[in-house]
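User: Hey, quick favor. My workstation is busy. Could you predict this chain's structure for me?
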Amino acid sequence: MLKQAMKTLTAAALGLSVLAGGMITAAQAADITLRATANSNENDEDYDGLVVFKDYVEKASNGTIAVELFIGTQLCSTGAECLQGIADGSIDIYISTSGGASGIFPYVQVLDLPYLLRDDRIAEEVLTEGTFTRALREQMLADSGGMIRLMTVGNTGGWRNFANTQREIRSPADMDGLKIRTIVADLPQELVRSMGASPTPIPWPELFTSFQTGVVEGTQNGITDIMGMKFPDAGLKHLTLDGHSYMGALWFMNNDRFMGLDENLRRVVVDGFAALQQATFASPKRKSIQAYQDFAEIGGQIYVPTMEEKAQFKEAAAPVFEWFKTNVDGGATFYDLLVAEAEKASGVVDSGAMMDLK
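Assistant: No problem, here it is.
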């Protein structure tokens, strides 16, 4: 009797601490399975995030929710296909890049606009909570007929930088004429053109051989993706750390599935996505340390632009901002929101730093 009472007390304490007083009934136990997919692999930060999410949700729900992970293309293979799976309920959770989601939500390309987010602290402050992310969620729900819900925005690969097979890049002038791989989306192509280079849309799986054959000479990627895909073996050897855009990861969930949970379990899922977000913020930072070392050890050349040189890149990219605001539905609204949130975040971070210095 005492042993059973202790078990009951422990379960009640867990429910109180995690679910803010909610109780999990026996009828709910083991009845809910969430199917989550990421079109990546187990070395990716998307997988790291899902592992954290799965662990948190299964424990915090006291086993009521099970999370099944499908890593790769078992359930779907393209952004459009996977988002359709979210909409029709065949997939519960999916992570997409802005490029993968831009066909349905074009304004999400605001995350690809260059040089708006200063560093990791600013990006994380903007994406963790605030007007910008909530506005994205509301707009996406409206545009998907209430079917696709944005749960959080994490990171997938750190920061996009310019890398190429030909020469060191210190300024936009050094990019003149280079054939730079882009995704099949307008904004990254406009950015490459603004730098004087030639945008060349190439599917990700074909990029390695495209470097080998000279179809393209450069790309916009983070170091973990560069090393994970072994691009130096295909001739990629120059990397400029201009950090022009934060590689946001959009985590979606079927809205009916989410709203079909009781309020206590919805809170568990929300908190699980918060834990996932923090994991994906941290993972690229750790993995990039070894990746940079490996790149240098095999002869890769890394250049960090000065503040003056980075200002030249930002000035060259200026036409992209006007293009986005003029040509993308909702572009002006989300551009203004992101800029305002970035300025607010900079104020919070900088004021805190000044106090820490005293």
